[in-house]
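Input record (one chain):
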Amino acid sequence: MQYLRRISSILSRGNKADDQQSNLDEPQTASKAAVENWISAIRKEESLASVNHSVAEVDLWENAGFQEDEKRKVVKELKTKYEDALREKFFGF
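The corresponding structure, as predicted from the sequence alone:
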């Protein structure tokens, strides 16, 4: 009887670990996607910075800089959420 309880306890801990892992997968995936999005914005800004500029092109370049900044903010927010989830898993707070 104790053997069965022990096995059940071990198996239920495994399920909790799986739940914890899936709880970490979501913020990690979101963070990775946001970083890729941010990298695209950086590349767009870089390409606009690398040409001779007319007034319209300067406006596009400036706008690309604003977009890059917004994407960076999203990355930082998602990174913080992922770090918080890791702290919860490893340290319980």
